[in-house]
Amino acid sequence: MNSPFPCSQCGRCCQLVDRSALTRHLDRGDGTCLHFDAVRLQCGIYEQRPDLCRVDRQYTLHYAKQISWDDFVTLNLRVCAALQHPEFPLGDTPR
After folding, report:
1. Long-range contacts for 72-79 (Cβ within 8 Å, ≥24 apart)?
2. What is the pTM of this model?
3. Which of 59, 77, 87, 88 could form a disulfide with 92 if both were Cys (CB 3.0 to 4.6 A apart)?
4. Which residues have a Cβ under 8 Å from the Cβ of 71 and sit 6 or more positions away?
């Protein structure tokens, strides 16, 4: 059993859905997901969110045969850091 993805629940991935063709259909018009609750910094449909928004489901569906869960988490955490700190290149993390 894989450990759960260590999401910080910052909401940045939900606030940049306009940057990917895969998530653009969720854009409410300002780059933020139409299901994102900006007050609570949570998904308004978390339990029913699309597979695209589920890191573990994306791994199982598309990446499990190519990469380990731990490596997949590491890559996703690098993207999370880049979303939270856009001043850092994707390969770097803030100290």
Report:
1. 73/3, 73/5, 73/6, 76/5, 77/6
2. 0.79
3. 88
4. none
Q: Which two tokens stand for residue 87?
A: 């001043």
pLDDT at position 8, please?
Answer: 86
Query: Distance (Å, rounded) from C-alpha 30 to C-alpha 61?
Result: 29
* Angle at 79 (CA atoms; ends 26, 46), nearest 5 degrees: 40
What is the tens place of the pLDDT at every residue in 17-35? 998 899 999 999 999 999 9
Structure tokens given for 48: 């029913």
d(CA 47, CA 75): 24
Residues in the chain: 95
